[in-house]
TrEMBL record:
Residues 453-472 are annotated as: Disordered. SUPFAM superfamilies: Calcium-dependent phosphotriesterase. This is Putative phosphatase. Pfam families: PhoX (PF05787).
Length: 630
């Protein structure tokens, strides 16, 4: 392959890349864009001619950089063990594990049966994911997602000969109770942070919790089912992945891979075009349809239309009814990043995490005023999809009946098809979007796309050739794209974009798979996924990638959390998770001295004793000197 590694370029060579001669490749242009900003110059010097030219070892090299950076820690090395690691002068502990009681009437975790089925919705749920902390009348309350389950750990006694771990209605019900959302009060106790058991804020939301539908698709024929002819009341929120917070203090939980919960008791059921686009078929993952006809597409074909939405939850009221907002579109929602447009309208950025799917933006019609409940603003607005062009600019294409040829409810329920109709850019699996609080720019983690290549298409037949912010064929490492809206206004319809980082392995590759100049042997990672900005404008990046530490991933170690500086391009490793885990979900205590971090599906027996099953957990991390960290 062509050598496009730019880390050892002279100034002239680097400058040439900034003003490329004709005949450059797409990747040359992208790298040029990525390094043309004022800021990354610092990164190039520090990473390229600094640490490398001085012959420093990887960890020593990154430590040296940290001394001149905005990072208040010495970066840590990659790890491959079954534990959590944080920088020197920081400490961590476990806040809560799957199965820990939220209420005193729940049984303590019982490894023999994988937790008590009777109180599965009275304990902290499985596979912790996106989360946000709220300060409510002096209490600190965390809302946190439970994305999916680990069947063999949750149902350890399934008969081996059955071929399925779900063998009864009780099994299916237990799994339904372990997923959804937890709302819990937390406090800084004598031995570290802990859950306030029996707090009036504590709540579990599951696959059975009643909620309502809002917006243009609510009540339409597409939403009407056997159990709900009104098409306005739905049970449960499915596959809650990333999260978001509204400006008015509510929680947004995002329904991602909802398709896997639906199946058919009739194996001959005809799969519609709409089902196919969203990956809904006759076979489900958890066999729910065997025990609850709501999940049987041959009985209740519209039930899948009622999932795949952004759901708003009020963490201050454990009796409140969650609302699924149809105006924000139905797709495999990763997270929801809210910001205000210059004129006061509400803007929500959202990724659809599937190969070749799209990046979306919702803009409300009404404006939000400080101190008011803005929930109704999420019922009425314009949904758009992003189109990126090769020259570093892009635009938001509104999804309207006129442009898509689709009626409004159909357009929102099948937003992916509407996006295809207007020519959205196929992306490398858009995960979290994060909006910089101190600069007018937003970032999206494009986690990877093993199938991107000339001639490939997404599920809707849209081309997935390497181009624009998705320049690399067979992209196993991922990248982070950022965009700056025209005039610094997130409500504007055009933007300029570049790549903040192309992940890669510079130990293995001396070409585009080695990554952008701000990737080094000392900070390399793959598959960026979770992202949050801290209040100081630093970008925290979490990974969900290959942690084999072999082959193309040699030297990257376990999944991890890094910090990026948007101004310099520097990236440094802050935390590593146990082998087998994904690091996902990040929020801060009210005084910003503690970061809460999610460790999903760890391996080994983390964080317990030998012989215990591994359990997804939220940990707390803080500086020994008690100073703020975010
Ligand atoms: Fe649930 Fe796309 O991560
Ligand atoms: Ca994710
Ligand atoms: Ca992921």
């Amino acid at each position: 392959m062509k050598d496009t590694d730019t880390r050892h370029l002279s100034w002239d060579e680097w400058d040439e890349l900034r003003r490329p001669a004709p005949g450059e490749t797409d990747f040359d242009r992208v790298v040029a864009g990525a390094i043309s900003r004022r800021g990354l110059l610092g990164g190039v010097l520090a990473f390229g001619s600094g640490a490398a030219a001085m012959g420093l070892g990887t960890l020593k090299g990154t430590t040296a950089m940290a001394q001149s950076s905005r990072f208040a820690f010495a970066p840590i090395a990659a790890q491959t063990d079954y534990d959590v690691h944080v920088p020197e002068d920081y400490e961590w502990g476990v806040l809560v594990r799957w199965g820990d009681p939220l209420f005193s009437d729940a049984a303590e975790f019982d490894a023999a049966q994988g937790g008590d089925p009777a109180t599965a919705d009275r304990v902290f749920g499985e596979n912790t994911d996106g989360m946000e902390l709220y300060e409510i009348d002096g209490a600190q309350v965390i809302a946190v997602n439970h994305e999916y389950v680990n069947e063999t750990i949750n149902l350890p006694n399934a008969p081996a000969e059955s071929g399925s771990v779900v063998n009864s209605e009780e099994d299916a019900t237990k799994l339904m109770m372990l997923q959804g959302v937890t709302v819990m009060e937390v406090r800084d106790g004598a031995t570290g942070w802990e859950v306030v058991v029996d707090s009036p804020y504590n709540r579990r939301i599951t696959h059975q919790t009643p909620m309502t539908l809002s917006g243009p698709a609510a009540g339409t024929p597409l939403m009407q089912t056997v159990a709900d002819p009104s098409g306005t009341e739905v049970k449960g929120t499915l596959n809650n992945c990333g999260a978001g917070r509204t400006l008015w203090g509510t929680y947004l939980t995002c329904e991602e891979n909802f398709n896997g919960y639906f199946g058919s008791t009739d194996p001959e059921v005809e799969i519609t075009e709409g089902w196919a686009r969203y990956g809904i078929g006759a076979e489900s993952r958890y066999a729910y349809e065997q025990y609850d006809s709501r999940f049987d597409i041959s009985v209740d074909p519209n039930e899948p239309n009622r999932h795949g939405w952004i759901v708003e939850i009020d963490p201050s009221d454990a009796q409140s009814v969650p609302v699924k907002h149809t105006a924000l579109g139905r797709f495999k929602h990763e997270n929801a990043a809210m910001v205000q447009a210059a004129d006061g309208r509400i803007v929500v950025y959202m990724g659809d995490d599937e190969r070749g799917e799209f990046l979306y933006r919702f803009v409300s019609n009404g404006v939000w005023e400080e101190g008011t409940n803005g929930s109704a603003l999420l019922e009425d607005g314009t949904l758009s999809v992003a189109r990126f062009t090769e020259d570093g600019t892009g635009e938001w294409l509104p999804l309207t009946p006129e442009r898509t040829g689709m009626e409004m409810a159909e357009m929102l329920v099948h937003a992916r098809m509407a996006g295809s109709a207007v020519g959205a850019t196929t992306m490398d699996r858009p995960e979290w979007v994060a909006v910089n609080p101190v600069a007018a720019e937003a970032y999206c983690a494009l986690t990877n796309n093993s199938r991107r290549e000339a001639g490939a298409t997404n599920a809707g037949g849209d081309a997935m050739e390497p181009a624009g912010p998705n320049p690399r064929p067979t992209n196993e490492y991922g990248q982070i794209v950022r965009w700056r809206p025209e005039g610094g206004d997130h409500g504007a319809d055009t933007f300029a974009w570049d790549l903040f980082v192309m992940a890669g392995n510079p130990q293995v590759y001396d070409n585009e798979y080695g990554g952008s100049p701000n990737v080094t042997p000392g900070n390399m990672f793959n598959s960026p996924d979770g992202m949050q900005f801290s209040s100081d404008g630093l970008l925290w990046i979490q990974t969900d990638g290959d942690d084999s530490n072999e082959g193309d991933f040699a030297g990257m170690g376990n999944n991890q959390m890094l910090v990026g500086d948007p101004e310099t391009g520097e990236i440094a490793r802050f935390l590593t998770g146990p082998n087998g885990s994904e690091v996902t979900g990040l929020t801060w205590s009210a005084d910003r001295t503690t970061a809460f971090v999610g460790i999903q599906h760890p391996g080994g027996s983390w964080p317990g004793e030998d012989g215990m099953p591994p359990r997804s957990s939220v940990i707390w991390v803080r500086r020994n000197d008690g100073q703020p960290i975010g």
